[in-house]
Amino acid sequence: MRNSIVRRMLPLLALLPTGVLAQSDVPAAGPRVMTLSECVAAARTGNIRAKDAQNDILMAKEQRKYARSKYFPTVGASAFHFESSQELIKMRLLDDETERDLEELFKGSGLDFDSSFGLVKRGSAVGMTMIEPLYTGGRLTNYNRLADLQVDAREMLRDVADDEIVQVTEFLYYKVLELHELDKTFVAMERELANIHQDAVNVYENGIVNKNDVLSVELIQDQLSALRIKTSNGCRLLRRALAKHIGMADVDIDVDTALTAEIVDPRQLWADARQAMESRTETHLLDIWVEKSVLERKIAMANMLPVVGIGGSMNYSKFLAEGQTKVIGFVGIQMPLSAFWSERHEYKRKRIEEQKARDFRKDKRELISLQIQDAYDNLESSYRQVQITEKSIRRADENLRIAREHYKGGITTMTVLLDAQRQQQQALTQRTTAVSEYLQAKTRYLILTGRRTSVAGCSAPR
Fold first, then answer.
1. CA count, 13 A, side-chain hemisphere, 81
2. Contact criterion met (CB below 8 Å) for 310 and 160
3. Which residues contact 442 (CB under 8 A, 6 or more apart)?
4. Is residue 317 very low, low, confident or very high in pLDDT (cuts 50, 70, 90)?
5. Residue 128 falls within a domain, yes or no?
6. Sign of CA dihedral 95, 98, 101, 103
7. What is the CA radius of gyration of the chain?
8. Distance, CA of 5 to CA of 361 (rounded, Å)
């Protein structure tokens, strides 16, 4: 998990400006110091993944409202008006023979005889139709259940995203802390080297040793100064990465440098892997995935069933002198005959998908149980590493004390003294790294065992 978090953070670190890392100018007001719980709380609302997850929930809820609206009748309205250059209906009052006789009668009088007349040169109409589905084979019910599942799944995915956000926040936070602690170690080393350098100068001036011992100490001091510059630049970069991650990219932040010394025995945090698996968000997501495939199979079956609806329409039209109003009620049934040889293949495909979802759930549940056990083993290992580094610090301190006394007494060489000093530095650095890894391992184990509200001292969003 830790390696995957590092890989996810590499693109973020690459986007940050690195050309200004060597600059030493600091805002007059100083950086804003934040605790881990404050960083986690800010990340849970300001991180882009948290915002996307919340928007996905809102979209799913709108989709659910859309699906529920299909239970209501479908209502449509229409209106039109037309004007024609000629009448749409031509009517004649006389038959052809009578009309020819009258034309002969009026022939030569200069009058045109026409017994026909036109109707409907303009007109208007408005109408309204309403259709209510009575039976759809289960389409509406199952579509609405799918919409409910979509909301539940998006809320669970928000929790999964929140878990990853917390872990990445802690990773960056503790990496900044590591560099701060490393810088404290370097400061202590500088003081120690200054004392060693003074002892070497005194011994050299008394003619006991040559100048090589003095030059060796000065060389180590130069190397230490270079390491402090690199540590400072790396710390500044990680602070910017942390600020970007928690949604405060425009704020100069720093972390509370008091590294916690509360190292809890893993046995106090142990939880049964099988029981913890049942409380995992991912386990519930697997159940939703299976239920989704079941509903899709039922919808595929419904596509082969008839649809029954009831409705009515009301129309008002005015084409002649007076308008007319008509009200029509109807019941309709639609039978998808071709679905029997086409949709049945889709139904079989959905049935196979359902079995795949069940097999996938079974496999992933076993992997989740193994993941929880692996997280506990990693927590135990990190706890033992902390204990080992604490013993190493005590031994390195004692070794440095003896080497210093022996050097002053002329029993040992400067090389031995500097090596003892290097071992002390290494022991201090290893303990800082071990404590950071233990705290991250503890967070990961609490999350994987379903104890999200115990993480980072602040409650998870709901």
1. 0
2. no
3. 264, 269, 379, 382
4. confident
5. no
6. negative
7. 41
8. 25
Residue 122 lies in a domain: no
Q: What is the CATH number of the domain that holds 252?
A: 1.20.1600.10
Number of domains in the chain: 1
* pLDDT tens per residue, range 173-220: 988 988 888 888 888 888 878 887 787 777 777 766 667 777 888 888
From CA 160, how far away is CA 398, in angstroms rounded?
Answer: 47
Q: List pLDDT tens digits, range 117-164.
A: 566 778 889 999 999 988 888 889 999 999 999 999 999 999 999 999
Is residue 118 in some structural domain? no
Q: Letter for the amino acid at 106?
A: F
The answer to whether residue 41 is domain-embedded is yes
Residues of the domain holding 143 = 2-73+136-306+339-454
Which residues sit opposite 329 in a β-bridge? Answer: 312
Q: Residue 301: what are its φ and ψ, rounded to 5°?
A: -70, -40
pTM: 0.73
Q: How far is CA 365 from the centre of its chain?
A: 22
Answer whether 440's CB lies under 8 Å from 447's CB.
no
Most confident option among 107-116, 177-186, 362-371: 362-371
Cβ atoms 281, 128 nearer than 8 A: no
Distance of CA 32 to the CA centre of its chain: 27
